[in-house]
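Entry 14: structure prediction run for UDP-galactopyranose mutase. Input pasted below.
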Amino acid sequence: MTKPDISVDVLIIGAGPTGLGAAKRLNQLDGPSWMIIDSNETPGGLASTDTTPEGFLYDVGGHVIFSHFKYFDDCIDEALPNEDDWYTHQRISYVRCKNLWVPYPFQNNISMLPKQEQVDCMDGMIDAALEARVANTKPKNFDEWIVRMMGTGIADLFMRPYNFKVWAVPTTKMQCQWLGERVAAPDLKTVTKNVILQKTAGNWGPNATFRFPAHGGTGAIWIAVAKTLPKEHTEFGSHATVATVDADNKVVALENGKTIGYEKLISTMGIDSLVEKMGDKSLISLSKDLFYSSTHVIGIGVRGQRPERIGDKCWLYFPDMDCPFYRATIFSNYSPNNQPQASTKLPTMQLASGEKPSNSSSQEGPYWSIMLEVSESSMKPVDNANLLADCIKGLIATDMLKATDEIVSTYHRRFDHGYPTPTLEREGALKQLLPKLLEKDIYSRGRFGSWRYEVGNQDHSFMLGVEAADHIVNGAAELTLNYPDFVNGRVNHERRLVDGAQFFKSRKGIRDEGKPLKPATNGVDMVNGSEKMVHGRKKSMGKA
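Run finished. Output C-alpha coordinates:
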Protein backbone atom coordinates (compact mmCIF):
# COMPACT_ATOMS: atom_id res chain seq x y z
CA MET A 1 0.00 0.00 0.00
CA THR A 2 1.16 3.57 -0.81
CA LYS A 3 2.20 5.60 2.22
CA PRO A 4 -0.39 8.28 3.18
CA ASP A 5 0.42 11.92 2.45
CA ILE A 6 -0.07 12.76 6.14
CA SER A 7 -0.22 10.56 9.24
CA VAL A 8 -1.61 11.50 12.66
CA ASP A 9 -2.49 9.60 15.81
CA VAL A 10 -6.08 10.91 15.88
CA LEU A 11 -8.01 12.19 12.87
CA ILE A 12 -11.27 14.08 13.47
CA ILE A 13 -13.84 14.30 10.67
CA GLY A 14 -16.22 17.23 11.05
CA ALA A 15 -15.85 20.65 12.70
CA GLY A 16 -19.25 20.93 14.31
CA PRO A 17 -19.57 20.96 18.13
CA THR A 18 -18.53 17.29 18.47
CA GLY A 19 -15.43 17.54 16.32
CA LEU A 20 -14.39 20.81 17.92
CA GLY A 21 -14.90 19.26 21.38
CA ALA A 22 -12.57 16.40 20.47
CA ALA A 23 -9.98 18.80 19.03
CA LYS A 24 -10.21 21.09 22.05
CA ARG A 25 -9.54 18.24 24.46
CA LEU A 26 -6.73 16.70 22.40
CA ASN A 27 -5.06 20.09 22.16
CA GLN A 28 -5.37 20.51 25.92
CA LEU A 29 -4.01 17.04 26.72
CA ASP A 30 -1.05 17.72 24.41
CA GLY A 31 -0.40 14.02 23.87
CA PRO A 32 -1.26 12.30 20.57
CA SER A 33 -0.83 14.12 17.28
CA TRP A 34 -4.16 15.13 15.78
CA MET A 35 -5.88 16.85 12.88
CA ILE A 36 -9.45 18.06 12.25
CA ILE A 37 -10.97 18.30 8.76
CA ASP A 38 -14.28 19.60 7.44
CA SER A 39 -15.73 20.08 3.96
CA ASN A 40 -17.04 23.54 4.90
CA GLU A 41 -14.82 26.61 5.05
CA THR A 42 -16.71 27.77 8.14
CA PRO A 43 -16.80 25.52 11.22
CA GLY A 44 -20.06 24.88 13.09
CA GLY A 45 -21.82 22.03 11.28
CA LEU A 46 -25.50 21.89 12.26
CA ALA A 47 -24.87 24.75 14.72
CA SER A 48 -24.07 27.28 11.97
CA THR A 49 -25.75 30.55 11.07
CA ASP A 50 -26.71 31.94 7.65
CA THR A 51 -27.14 35.60 6.70
CA THR A 52 -29.58 36.68 4.00
CA PRO A 53 -28.58 39.31 1.38
CA GLU A 54 -30.77 41.79 3.29
CA GLY A 55 -28.85 41.19 6.54
CA PHE A 56 -31.19 38.89 8.52
CA LEU A 57 -29.52 36.06 10.46
CA TYR A 58 -30.99 32.55 10.84
CA ASP A 59 -29.57 29.57 12.70
CA VAL A 60 -29.79 26.01 11.43
CA GLY A 61 -32.92 25.49 13.53
CA GLY A 62 -33.63 26.56 17.09
CA HIS A 63 -30.37 26.73 19.05
CA VAL A 64 -29.77 28.32 22.44
CA ILE A 65 -26.95 27.89 24.94
CA PHE A 66 -27.69 26.08 28.19
CA SER A 67 -25.40 23.51 29.66
CA HIS A 68 -24.98 20.47 31.89
CA PHE A 69 -21.17 20.63 31.67
CA LYS A 70 -18.65 23.04 33.22
CA TYR A 71 -16.05 22.04 30.63
CA PHE A 72 -18.39 23.17 27.87
CA ASP A 73 -18.99 26.44 29.72
CA ASP A 74 -15.23 26.97 30.12
CA CYS A 75 -14.58 26.50 26.40
CA ILE A 76 -17.46 28.75 25.34
CA ASP A 77 -16.42 31.46 27.79
CA GLU A 78 -12.83 31.25 26.60
CA ALA A 79 -13.99 31.70 22.99
CA LEU A 80 -16.39 34.58 23.74
CA PRO A 81 -15.05 35.94 27.05
CA ASN A 82 -16.64 39.39 27.29
CA GLU A 83 -19.90 40.21 29.00
CA ASP A 84 -21.11 42.09 25.92
CA ASP A 85 -20.51 38.99 23.75
CA TRP A 86 -23.77 37.57 25.09
CA TYR A 87 -27.42 38.22 25.83
CA THR A 88 -29.04 36.22 28.63
CA HIS A 89 -32.76 35.49 28.36
CA GLN A 90 -35.52 34.02 30.47
CA ARG A 91 -37.43 31.60 28.28
CA ILE A 92 -40.88 32.91 27.38
CA SER A 93 -42.56 30.13 25.48
CA TYR A 94 -46.12 29.23 24.54
CA VAL A 95 -48.16 26.58 22.74
CA ARG A 96 -50.73 27.77 20.19
CA CYS A 97 -53.83 25.67 20.78
CA LYS A 98 -57.48 26.37 20.01
CA ASN A 99 -56.45 29.89 18.94
CA LEU A 100 -55.06 30.53 22.43
CA TRP A 101 -51.53 30.94 23.76
CA VAL A 102 -51.00 28.31 26.47
CA PRO A 103 -47.79 28.73 28.53
CA TYR A 104 -45.13 26.02 28.10
CA PRO A 105 -45.10 23.22 29.17
CA PHE A 106 -48.62 22.66 27.87
CA GLN A 107 -49.39 19.68 30.12
CA ASN A 108 -48.82 21.80 33.25
CA ASN A 109 -50.98 24.69 32.05
CA ILE A 110 -54.27 23.25 30.85
CA SER A 111 -55.90 25.84 33.14
CA MET A 112 -55.58 28.22 30.16
CA LEU A 113 -57.71 26.04 27.86
CA PRO A 114 -61.46 26.36 27.20
CA LYS A 115 -63.58 24.55 29.82
CA GLN A 116 -64.43 21.50 27.70
CA GLU A 117 -60.77 20.92 26.83
CA GLN A 118 -59.89 21.31 30.52
CA VAL A 119 -62.45 18.59 31.34
CA ASP A 120 -61.13 16.28 28.61
CA CYS A 121 -57.54 16.71 29.78
CA MET A 122 -58.38 16.28 33.48
CA ASP A 123 -60.45 13.16 32.71
CA GLY A 124 -57.52 11.65 30.88
CA MET A 125 -55.01 12.57 33.60
CA ILE A 126 -57.17 11.03 36.33
CA ASP A 127 -57.60 7.84 34.28
CA ALA A 128 -53.84 7.77 33.68
CA ALA A 129 -53.09 8.21 37.40
CA LEU A 130 -55.44 5.36 38.33
CA GLU A 131 -54.02 3.13 35.59
CA ALA A 132 -50.46 3.86 36.72
CA ARG A 133 -51.24 2.51 40.20
CA VAL A 134 -52.01 -0.96 38.89
CA ALA A 135 -49.77 -1.10 35.80
CA ASN A 136 -47.05 -3.74 36.08
CA THR A 137 -45.42 -3.26 32.67
CA LYS A 138 -43.44 -0.42 31.16
CA PRO A 139 -44.76 1.50 28.13
CA LYS A 140 -43.67 -0.21 24.90
CA ASN A 141 -43.48 2.98 22.84
CA PHE A 142 -43.72 6.77 23.06
CA ASP A 143 -47.47 6.74 22.44
CA GLU A 144 -48.08 4.38 25.36
CA TRP A 145 -45.82 6.56 27.52
CA ILE A 146 -47.86 9.66 26.64
CA VAL A 147 -51.17 7.99 27.51
CA ARG A 148 -49.72 6.43 30.68
CA MET A 149 -48.27 9.75 31.90
CA MET A 150 -50.82 12.29 30.64
CA GLY A 151 -53.99 10.53 29.51
CA THR A 152 -55.85 10.55 26.22
CA GLY A 153 -57.07 14.16 26.52
CA ILE A 154 -53.61 15.76 26.41
CA ALA A 155 -52.46 13.03 24.00
CA ASP A 156 -55.10 13.88 21.40
CA LEU A 157 -55.07 17.65 21.89
CA PHE A 158 -51.33 18.24 21.97
CA MET A 159 -48.80 15.42 22.34
CA ARG A 160 -49.74 13.24 19.36
CA PRO A 161 -50.25 15.98 16.75
CA TYR A 162 -47.30 18.07 17.93
CA ASN A 163 -44.84 15.21 18.04
CA PHE A 164 -45.87 14.02 14.59
CA LYS A 165 -45.19 17.54 13.29
CA VAL A 166 -41.74 17.52 14.96
CA TRP A 167 -40.55 13.98 14.25
CA ALA A 168 -42.45 13.27 11.02
CA VAL A 169 -43.09 9.82 12.50
CA PRO A 170 -46.18 8.61 14.43
CA THR A 171 -45.63 8.33 18.21
CA THR A 172 -46.48 4.62 17.98
CA LYS A 173 -43.25 4.07 16.01
CA MET A 174 -41.00 5.78 18.57
CA GLN A 175 -39.43 4.32 21.69
CA CYS A 176 -39.57 6.14 25.02
CA GLN A 177 -36.14 5.57 26.63
CA TRP A 178 -34.90 8.87 25.15
CA LEU A 179 -37.31 11.10 27.08
CA GLY A 180 -35.49 11.95 30.32
CA GLU A 181 -35.74 15.72 30.82
CA ARG A 182 -37.08 16.31 27.32
CA VAL A 183 -40.76 15.98 28.25
CA ALA A 184 -42.34 17.24 31.48
CA ALA A 185 -44.53 14.69 33.27
CA PRO A 186 -47.49 16.58 34.79
CA ASP A 187 -48.22 16.60 38.53
CA LEU A 188 -51.95 15.85 38.84
CA LYS A 189 -52.39 17.71 42.14
CA THR A 190 -50.62 20.83 40.87
CA VAL A 191 -52.51 20.80 37.58
CA THR A 192 -55.83 20.41 39.45
CA LYS A 193 -55.03 23.35 41.73
CA ASN A 194 -54.06 25.49 38.76
CA VAL A 195 -57.29 24.63 36.93
CA ILE A 196 -59.43 25.52 39.96
CA LEU A 197 -57.48 28.70 40.78
CA GLN A 198 -56.89 29.60 37.10
CA LYS A 199 -53.14 29.81 37.65
CA THR A 200 -50.23 28.98 35.35
CA ALA A 201 -47.21 26.83 36.20
CA GLY A 202 -43.72 28.30 36.30
CA ASN A 203 -40.78 27.59 34.03
CA TRP A 204 -39.67 23.98 33.69
CA GLY A 205 -36.66 22.35 32.11
CA PRO A 206 -32.95 22.96 31.64
CA ASN A 207 -33.40 25.81 29.14
CA ALA A 208 -35.58 28.07 31.34
CA THR A 209 -32.63 30.49 31.22
CA PHE A 210 -30.35 30.58 28.19
CA ARG A 211 -27.63 32.63 26.52
CA PHE A 212 -27.33 33.78 22.95
CA PRO A 213 -24.42 35.47 21.14
CA ALA A 214 -24.73 39.23 20.64
CA HIS A 215 -23.26 39.01 17.14
CA GLY A 216 -23.20 36.35 14.42
CA GLY A 217 -25.85 33.96 15.76
CA THR A 218 -25.07 30.52 17.15
CA GLY A 219 -22.50 29.99 14.41
CA ALA A 220 -20.31 32.71 15.93
CA ILE A 221 -19.71 30.51 18.98
CA TRP A 222 -18.18 27.70 16.98
CA ILE A 223 -16.18 29.98 14.72
CA ALA A 224 -14.70 31.48 17.91
CA VAL A 225 -14.03 28.05 19.46
CA ALA A 226 -12.26 26.94 16.26
CA LYS A 227 -10.04 30.03 16.43
CA THR A 228 -8.67 28.83 19.79
CA LEU A 229 -7.18 25.78 18.03
CA PRO A 230 -3.76 25.79 16.31
CA LYS A 231 -4.34 26.43 12.59
CA GLU A 232 -1.73 23.88 11.58
CA HIS A 233 -4.02 21.14 12.96
CA THR A 234 -7.06 22.23 10.92
CA GLU A 235 -8.05 21.75 7.29
CA PHE A 236 -11.40 23.29 6.34
CA GLY A 237 -12.93 23.68 2.88
CA SER A 238 -14.30 21.68 -0.04
CA HIS A 239 -10.84 20.22 -0.67
CA ALA A 240 -11.18 18.45 2.70
CA THR A 241 -14.34 16.56 1.70
CA VAL A 242 -14.03 12.88 2.61
CA ALA A 243 -14.20 10.53 -0.38
CA THR A 244 -13.51 7.15 1.26
CA VAL A 245 -12.60 5.67 4.64
CA ASP A 246 -10.32 2.63 4.39
CA ALA A 247 -10.89 1.17 7.86
CA ASP A 248 -8.60 -1.82 7.32
CA ASN A 249 -5.58 0.28 6.39
CA LYS A 250 -6.66 3.27 8.52
CA VAL A 251 -6.51 5.79 5.71
CA VAL A 252 -9.01 8.53 4.82
CA ALA A 253 -8.93 9.74 1.20
CA LEU A 254 -10.14 13.25 0.39
CA GLU A 255 -11.90 14.39 -2.79
CA ASN A 256 -8.75 16.17 -3.94
CA GLY A 257 -6.78 12.91 -3.79
CA LYS A 258 -4.94 13.65 -0.56
CA THR A 259 -4.68 10.74 1.91
CA ILE A 260 -4.47 10.91 5.70
CA GLY A 261 -3.37 7.98 7.82
CA TYR A 262 -4.57 7.62 11.41
CA GLU A 263 -4.40 5.34 14.44
CA LYS A 264 -7.79 6.39 15.83
CA LEU A 265 -10.62 8.06 13.92
CA ILE A 266 -13.28 10.29 15.51
CA SER A 267 -16.02 10.67 12.89
CA THR A 268 -18.85 13.14 13.43
CA MET A 269 -20.54 12.66 10.06
CA GLY A 270 -23.81 10.75 10.07
CA ILE A 271 -23.13 7.12 10.91
CA ASP A 272 -25.12 6.18 7.81
CA SER A 273 -22.81 8.32 5.66
CA LEU A 274 -19.71 6.95 7.40
CA VAL A 275 -20.47 3.30 6.65
CA GLU A 276 -21.20 4.25 3.03
CA LYS A 277 -17.76 5.92 2.80
CA MET A 278 -16.30 2.72 4.27
CA GLY A 279 -18.11 0.57 1.71
CA ASP A 280 -18.85 -2.01 4.40
CA LYS A 281 -21.98 -3.85 3.23
CA SER A 282 -22.77 -5.46 6.60
CA LEU A 283 -22.60 -2.09 8.40
CA ILE A 284 -24.58 -0.39 5.63
CA SER A 285 -27.28 -3.02 6.11
CA LEU A 286 -27.39 -2.33 9.87
CA SER A 287 -27.61 1.44 9.29
CA LYS A 288 -30.81 0.98 7.28
CA ASP A 289 -32.65 0.51 10.59
CA LEU A 290 -31.83 4.10 11.58
CA PHE A 291 -34.46 6.69 10.68
CA TYR A 292 -34.16 10.46 10.47
CA SER A 293 -36.24 13.44 9.43
CA SER A 294 -35.22 16.42 7.35
CA THR A 295 -35.67 19.98 8.57
CA HIS A 296 -36.75 23.01 6.58
CA VAL A 297 -35.73 26.31 8.14
CA ILE A 298 -37.85 29.24 6.96
CA GLY A 299 -37.02 32.86 7.77
CA ILE A 300 -39.30 35.88 7.40
CA GLY A 301 -37.96 39.43 7.79
CA VAL A 302 -40.65 42.02 8.49
CA ARG A 303 -40.62 45.82 8.42
CA GLY A 304 -42.15 47.65 11.37
CA GLN A 305 -42.09 47.69 15.14
CA ARG A 306 -42.41 44.28 16.75
CA PRO A 307 -46.14 43.90 17.54
CA GLU A 308 -47.36 43.84 21.14
CA ARG A 309 -48.99 40.44 20.53
CA ILE A 310 -45.51 39.06 19.80
CA GLY A 311 -43.81 40.88 22.65
CA ASP A 312 -40.73 39.25 24.16
CA LYS A 313 -41.71 35.69 23.29
CA CYS A 314 -38.76 33.36 22.56
CA TRP A 315 -40.12 30.30 20.82
CA LEU A 316 -43.62 28.97 20.22
CA TYR A 317 -45.08 25.53 19.51
CA PHE A 318 -47.83 24.73 17.00
CA PRO A 319 -49.61 21.35 17.30
CA ASP A 320 -52.62 22.32 15.18
CA MET A 321 -52.88 21.72 11.44
CA ASP A 322 -53.57 25.36 10.50
CA CYS A 323 -49.86 25.85 9.77
CA PRO A 324 -47.07 23.59 8.44
CA PHE A 325 -44.45 24.60 11.03
CA TYR A 326 -44.09 22.99 14.46
CA ARG A 327 -42.03 25.77 16.03
CA ALA A 328 -41.53 29.48 15.53
CA THR A 329 -38.67 31.45 17.04
CA ILE A 330 -38.81 35.23 17.29
CA PHE A 331 -35.20 35.41 16.23
CA SER A 332 -35.03 39.20 16.43
CA ASN A 333 -35.69 38.93 20.19
CA TYR A 334 -32.47 36.98 20.80
CA SER A 335 -30.20 39.83 19.70
CA PRO A 336 -30.80 43.23 18.09
CA ASN A 337 -27.99 42.29 15.69
CA ASN A 338 -29.94 39.37 14.18
CA GLN A 339 -31.59 41.82 11.77
CA PRO A 340 -30.55 44.97 9.88
CA GLN A 341 -30.31 48.29 11.69
CA ALA A 342 -33.45 50.44 11.50
CA SER A 343 -31.62 52.93 9.25
CA THR A 344 -31.07 50.26 6.58
CA LYS A 345 -33.26 50.86 3.53
CA LEU A 346 -34.91 47.78 2.02
CA PRO A 347 -37.70 47.36 -0.55
CA THR A 348 -40.86 45.47 0.35
CA MET A 349 -40.85 42.08 -1.43
CA GLN A 350 -44.54 41.38 -0.79
CA LEU A 351 -47.28 41.83 1.74
CA ALA A 352 -47.97 38.84 3.97
CA SER A 353 -51.23 38.35 2.05
CA GLY A 354 -49.15 37.66 -1.07
CA GLU A 355 -50.15 40.93 -2.73
CA LYS A 356 -47.58 43.25 -4.27
CA PRO A 357 -46.77 46.40 -2.27
CA SER A 358 -48.11 49.74 -3.42
CA ASN A 359 -44.63 51.20 -2.97
CA SER A 360 -41.64 49.16 -4.11
CA SER A 361 -38.96 51.75 -3.25
CA SER A 362 -36.40 51.05 -0.52
CA GLN A 363 -37.41 52.37 2.89
CA GLU A 364 -35.99 52.33 6.40
CA GLY A 365 -36.98 49.92 9.20
CA PRO A 366 -37.18 49.04 12.02
CA TYR A 367 -37.22 45.28 11.39
CA TRP A 368 -38.05 42.08 13.22
CA SER A 369 -37.89 38.43 12.20
CA ILE A 370 -39.42 34.99 12.65
CA MET A 371 -37.66 31.67 12.11
CA LEU A 372 -39.83 28.60 11.41
CA GLU A 373 -39.07 24.88 11.40
CA VAL A 374 -40.88 22.26 9.33
CA SER A 375 -40.11 18.53 9.38
CA GLU A 376 -40.16 16.16 6.43
CA SER A 377 -39.83 12.39 6.04
CA SER A 378 -41.10 9.54 3.92
CA MET A 379 -44.04 9.36 6.36
CA LYS A 380 -44.64 13.13 6.22
CA PRO A 381 -43.87 14.64 2.80
CA VAL A 382 -44.03 18.40 2.23
CA ASP A 383 -44.75 20.56 -0.80
CA ASN A 384 -41.26 21.98 -1.10
CA ALA A 385 -42.05 24.37 -3.94
CA ASN A 386 -44.89 26.06 -2.04
CA LEU A 387 -43.60 25.64 1.53
CA LEU A 388 -42.50 29.25 2.00
CA ALA A 389 -45.89 30.56 0.83
CA ASP A 390 -47.72 28.00 2.97
CA CYS A 391 -45.70 29.06 6.04
CA ILE A 392 -46.59 32.73 5.50
CA LYS A 393 -50.26 31.74 5.26
CA GLY A 394 -49.79 29.75 8.47
CA LEU A 395 -48.33 32.81 10.21
CA ILE A 396 -51.46 34.78 9.30
CA ALA A 397 -53.73 31.92 10.42
CA THR A 398 -52.01 31.80 13.82
CA ASP A 399 -52.06 35.59 14.30
CA MET A 400 -48.28 35.84 14.06
CA LEU A 401 -48.52 38.14 11.03
CA LYS A 402 -51.22 40.44 9.71
CA ALA A 403 -52.11 40.30 6.00
CA THR A 404 -50.81 43.86 5.55
CA ASP A 405 -47.38 43.23 7.11
CA GLU A 406 -44.48 44.13 4.81
CA ILE A 407 -42.09 41.24 4.15
CA VAL A 408 -38.63 42.50 3.20
CA SER A 409 -36.66 39.24 3.30
CA THR A 410 -37.30 35.51 3.02
CA TYR A 411 -35.08 32.50 3.65
CA HIS A 412 -35.62 28.79 3.01
CA ARG A 413 -33.05 26.05 3.45
CA ARG A 414 -33.55 22.31 3.70
CA PHE A 415 -31.25 20.23 5.89
CA ASP A 416 -31.41 16.58 4.89
CA HIS A 417 -30.37 15.27 8.32
CA GLY A 418 -32.43 17.29 10.80
CA TYR A 419 -33.53 15.01 13.66
CA PRO A 420 -32.12 11.55 14.53
CA THR A 421 -35.37 9.75 15.27
CA PRO A 422 -35.55 7.53 18.38
CA THR A 423 -37.50 4.79 16.62
CA LEU A 424 -38.22 1.37 18.09
CA GLU A 425 -35.41 -0.08 15.96
CA ARG A 426 -32.76 2.49 16.91
CA GLU A 427 -31.05 0.83 19.87
CA GLY A 428 -30.93 -2.56 18.17
CA ALA A 429 -28.98 -0.99 15.30
CA LEU A 430 -26.71 1.21 17.44
CA LYS A 431 -25.78 -1.61 19.82
CA GLN A 432 -24.27 -3.40 16.85
CA LEU A 433 -22.97 -0.49 14.79
CA LEU A 434 -21.05 1.46 17.44
CA PRO A 435 -19.11 -1.52 18.88
CA LYS A 436 -18.29 -2.87 15.40
CA LEU A 437 -16.87 0.52 14.45
CA LEU A 438 -14.95 0.75 17.71
CA GLU A 439 -13.33 -2.60 16.91
CA LYS A 440 -11.91 -0.81 13.87
CA ASP A 441 -10.69 2.11 16.06
CA ILE A 442 -13.47 4.35 14.76
CA TYR A 443 -15.40 6.50 17.25
CA SER A 444 -18.64 7.55 15.55
CA ARG A 445 -19.94 10.42 17.73
CA GLY A 446 -22.24 13.44 17.53
CA ARG A 447 -25.88 14.26 16.85
CA PHE A 448 -25.92 11.89 13.88
CA GLY A 449 -22.61 10.14 14.56
CA SER A 450 -24.04 8.36 17.59
CA TRP A 451 -27.72 9.01 16.66
CA ARG A 452 -28.98 9.63 20.20
CA TYR A 453 -31.24 12.69 20.25
CA GLU A 454 -31.32 12.71 24.06
CA VAL A 455 -27.67 13.80 24.00
CA GLY A 456 -27.91 15.85 20.80
CA ASN A 457 -27.88 19.43 22.12
CA GLN A 458 -24.81 21.60 21.62
CA ASP A 459 -23.38 20.90 25.07
CA HIS A 460 -23.96 17.15 24.71
CA SER A 461 -22.51 17.07 21.20
CA PHE A 462 -19.40 18.96 22.30
CA MET A 463 -18.86 16.59 25.24
CA LEU A 464 -19.31 13.51 23.05
CA GLY A 465 -16.17 14.67 21.27
CA VAL A 466 -14.35 15.61 24.49
CA GLU A 467 -15.09 12.23 26.06
CA ALA A 468 -14.10 10.30 22.93
CA ALA A 469 -10.73 12.06 23.08
CA ASP A 470 -10.41 11.24 26.79
CA HIS A 471 -11.24 7.61 26.12
CA ILE A 472 -8.56 7.42 23.45
CA VAL A 473 -5.89 9.07 25.62
CA ASN A 474 -6.82 7.94 29.13
CA GLY A 475 -9.34 5.11 28.77
CA ALA A 476 -11.93 7.32 30.48
CA ALA A 477 -15.60 6.34 30.47
CA GLU A 478 -17.81 8.06 27.87
CA LEU A 479 -20.63 9.01 30.21
CA THR A 480 -22.58 11.26 27.82
CA LEU A 481 -22.81 8.55 25.17
CA ASN A 482 -23.55 5.64 27.47
CA TYR A 483 -25.40 7.21 30.43
CA PRO A 484 -27.55 10.08 29.12
CA ASP A 485 -29.88 10.18 32.14
CA PHE A 486 -26.90 10.44 34.50
CA VAL A 487 -25.27 13.44 32.80
CA ASN A 488 -28.65 15.13 32.23
CA GLY A 489 -29.57 14.81 35.89
CA ARG A 490 -26.62 16.74 37.33
CA VAL A 491 -24.10 19.51 36.79
CA ASN A 492 -21.01 17.75 35.43
CA HIS A 493 -18.16 19.79 36.89
CA GLU A 494 -15.32 17.25 36.98
CA ARG A 495 -13.53 18.21 33.75
CA ARG A 496 -12.30 21.78 33.46
CA LEU A 497 -10.38 23.64 30.79
CA VAL A 498 -7.65 24.13 33.42
CA ASP A 499 -7.01 20.65 34.83
CA GLY A 500 -5.72 19.50 38.19
CA ALA A 501 -1.99 19.51 37.49
CA GLN A 502 -2.26 22.88 35.78
CA PHE A 503 -4.15 24.27 38.76
CA PHE A 504 -1.37 23.31 41.15
CA LYS A 505 1.26 24.64 38.77
CA SER A 506 -0.50 27.99 38.70
CA ARG A 507 -0.78 28.02 42.50
CA LYS A 508 2.98 27.60 42.76
CA GLY A 509 3.56 30.36 40.24
CA ILE A 510 5.09 28.00 37.69
CA ARG A 511 4.84 29.56 34.26
CA ASP A 512 4.06 27.77 31.03
CA GLU A 513 5.30 29.31 27.80
CA GLY A 514 6.06 32.54 29.65
CA LYS A 515 2.46 33.15 30.79
CA PRO A 516 0.90 32.33 34.16
CA LEU A 517 -1.91 29.82 33.92
CA LYS A 518 -5.28 30.80 35.31
CA PRO A 519 -6.43 28.60 38.21
CA ALA A 520 -9.57 26.53 37.76
CA THR A 521 -12.53 28.15 39.44
CA ASN A 522 -13.58 24.99 41.23
CA GLY A 523 -10.17 23.58 42.10
CA VAL A 524 -8.96 20.11 41.19
CA ASP A 525 -10.16 17.93 38.32
CA MET A 526 -10.90 14.91 40.50
CA VAL A 527 -12.52 12.71 37.85
CA ASN A 528 -9.36 12.70 35.77
CA GLY A 529 -7.37 11.70 38.82
CA SER A 530 -9.79 8.89 39.62
CA GLU A 531 -9.76 7.69 36.03
CA LYS A 532 -5.97 7.64 36.15
CA MET A 533 -6.13 5.32 39.17
CA VAL A 534 -8.87 3.09 37.80
CA HIS A 535 -7.20 2.55 34.46
CA GLY A 536 -3.70 2.31 35.93
CA ARG A 537 -2.30 4.62 33.29
CA LYS A 538 -0.36 7.81 33.63
CA LYS A 539 -2.50 10.79 32.69
CA SER A 540 -1.09 13.27 30.20
CA MET A 541 -1.58 16.67 31.77
CA GLY A 542 -1.31 19.18 28.97
CA LYS A 543 -1.15 22.88 28.49
CA ALA A 544 -4.18 25.08 28.87
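Notes: The radius of gyration is 25 Å. Will compare against the previous run tomorrow.
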